[in-house]
Amino acid sequence: MTDSPCIDVENLQGGARIRSTGDFPVEPGGLERKALNDQFRLMRMSHESLQRSRGQLKRRTRELKDAQDVFLVRMRDYEDRLRVLAEEKVEAMEMAKELHEEIMSHERRQKALNDLLREMDDGEDGSVGFLSIYRLRSLFGKFKVLMRGGL
After folding, report:
1. pLDDT, tens digit, for every residue of 88-132?
2. N or C: which terminal CB in the chain sees fewer CB atoms within 10 Å?
């Protein structure tokens, strides 16, 4: 019998340290003491590697959950910001529509005033009489309507 182990347990690489249960004998009773010690050390190393891997998996799972929580908080924040921007856009569109309507109304009043002034200029033919008085009265009526904001 030699004192060297059956399996060089100390020099096993990282991936070789994790072993399946099929690599170990079901009944260790028939093994020599040296082989039994080697199998025990292999099982212990495999168990240690698995425990480290399990710890890393738990840590990475926890980190992923934390990152997911941060991501969800940011997404909700972005959703809120988008909602505010959408509301501001709707408000700006409504204001633009109101401003457009106001400009159109102003243009209609300006056109009506220009037409009225043109009509008044046309009425300066120097004639006096019923027709010119009627035309003046009609012009003043239109002017009143225009000054009250109507067309």
Report:
1. 999 999 999 999 999 998 898 888 888 877 877 766 655 655 556
2. N
